[in-house]
User: Fold these one by one.
Assistant:
Number 1:
Amino acid sequence: MSKHCTHTDSIAHVVPGTLGCAECLKLGSIWVHLRLCRTCGHVGCCDDSPHRHARAHFHETGHPIIEGYDPPEGWGWCFVDKVEVDLGDTTPQNGPIPRYV
């Protein structure tokens, strides 16, 4: 395991694509917390959620860094290097996020 992230060049200022986990909203499913892809703005659910859509998005796209998004938590995580990442800022939410859990 790396002691630092080697993917910080992929961090972008993004606009969240949905007001909740994109896939859970389509399924009518619940989530626990949300994660924001800092490459493309995909909003997915965390690993404590039933479907783990943020991790699935990483596996499908290779986009390595997520932000703790709901609520905005100020931290990032690199799936590849398995380390916390200093994002330098937090992404504002586009509106109220529906609560399921």
Number 2:
Amino acid sequence: MHYLRLSFALGLASLTAACGQKAETPDSSEMTGSTDNMAMAPAAATPILAKGHGTVTAIDKGAGTITLAHGPIPEAKWPAMTMAFKAAPAIADTAQVGEKVDFELKITGSAGEVTALTRQP
């Protein structure tokens, strides 16, 4: 029974001592050979160009945004939703709340910018 207590105490002490240590990582000079099987870090977000249809629900010229209730946008894997997008003043000035519109987006990460807007007939 004494050995069990001693083993438990030593194991606990080892774990406690290891908690404050950082994991060692090899520096680039130690890494040689092919990187074919290595997981690569994600590249910077590449913009996606997408098109959508929706209704203008709000325009905030001060913030430079236009809010659209839009249908699904497959290029971005977005379901139908209502969200605010950045928009150039020329685009925000031509839109009116309540209009049904077709729009083009430039999406970077989870944010989008309306690059073109046309009224639906």
Number 3:
Amino acid sequence: MKKSLIILGICGLTALTACQNQGHNVAREGNGIYERSGNTLNVNTQRSEIYNRHNGVTNNNGDFGYVRHQRSPIMGENVSYNKYATLDREQLADLISGYCTDLPNVDDVSTLVTDEEVLVIYDTNSNNRNLTADQVKRTAMSVVPRSYHVYVSDNTALRKYVENFANSNSNNGNLQTSLNKVINEMLKSPQGKKIGNGENENGEKMGERKNKIDNRNMK
């Protein structure tokens, strides 16, 4: 009788351990359980990181992408880190160039993404340059954060000047004057329609471009 009870007890413990392991695996697989990464709650824990900057497109297996952010529960704690500082600008430029080549009458697209601007040079045989410029511009705006300003040009002679900034970064303040000169040349090309009330064709608010240039020249 005692042997039977002992055997039953061992079997019960084994089954309980198996259930716990299974529950642990379910939690690890993210089935309804969130894993915290900094102040981000990420459902799919099988990803090695939320945004992989080295492997190009991270979501290449058909999975949906879902990330949840929460404010800090501690009053006054500053967790509003610069979310845009970690953007892979080269990947954004690649997306914009790729999407723009899908537009009618647009090919050979070069895109530069800085910390606050997007410059797009494209070749086109369109009979409506302003319409094409508007399509290219809005395509670029759909990829980057709304705070960005987008400048476009179908003057392919400017491509080499844009390419000169390819290996630059936002910490080099000496390049800002040259960058502004290129933008001024791009503005001689059609820029499409105004974005909305109080914003010009490039998404700048009234007087914003002048103030931005003045601030940069003071650095």
